[in-house]
Amino acid sequence: MAGILFIISAPSGSGKSTLVNEVRKQLSGIEFSVSWTTRAPRGSEEDGREYHFTSRAEFERRIAAGEFMEHAEVFGNYYGTARASLDQARRDGHDLLLDIDVQGAAQVRASMPEAVSIFVLPPNPRVLRTRLRNRSRAEGVVNEAEVYRRLSEASREIENYHEYGYILVNDALDRAVAQLEAIVQAERFYRNDEPIAFRSRRVLEVAAGCLQANSQQRLKPVLEAFGILGPMGQGKMSFDGDLEDEDSEDESGEVSGATGSPDNKEDSNDH
Ligand code: ADP
Ligand code: 5GP
What we know:
The chain is an alpha/beta fold. Helix content is 42%, strand content 15%.
């Protein structure tokens, strides 16, 4: 049976890798495509685990040889997905998850419209800035120029949210993990007739709540804060608002498990 291709995109620092790592611990039968990149390893990253790290010359050789199913330049570096990842997942009959930027996602959707696409949003610019700083601090030094660069790119990436089938707001981590898991299970159920155990109805409801078409109310304040909708105007981010947003983030910069508390931050309609 052919596997399902999942694409996940988000502004850098939204928590996409954290979410994906949590979901991979919970679900089997889904492979993660390790991308190629010309950027340098960060923190504890290892070659072949988070990325295949390579030089520009080698990356360009691979482009010329047609080895990538998509590639793009992001923050001044090349990133690309090897065709071999998809071939391997197909041979194994596994689902494949691609963590790629909005340009790469558009390329994949054009050639494989059946792919399931998921966009992850941070709750607001303050939280995104804190996460970018925390991650930078955990890597040994807060690189403010890099934090600023990624923050200023966020609104441009978020403008593409409507191209994606599902939208997640990564506020409380355990809720976002549950939502991502529900999307994978619901798609397996609809496409492969895969049975969902006793929680089935709930899982389908959670996934349906994340469909872009059902997310407009939930998204409005997020899009306004990033200057995509409403009075702030295009591209003007708001760092005003509830200080608790920032304080509620783990100042150590690490999320070691699904530690968010879904019940105390938002109403249950979002589940
Ligand atoms: P991305 O892969 O989207 O660039 P990361 O997964 O590296 O982002 O997350 C950025 C930072 O935010 C990390 O320090 C991570 O531990 C933290 N983080 C991720 N999700 C949450 C969350 N829901 N609540 C608090 N911190 C989070
Ligand atoms: P980071 O440097 O923070 O790991 O990733 C920066 C951006 O590159 C993220 O938006 C991430 O999704 C994207 N990215 C990672 N791998 C790929 C890839 O193979 N292709 C494309 N197009 N983008 C990628």
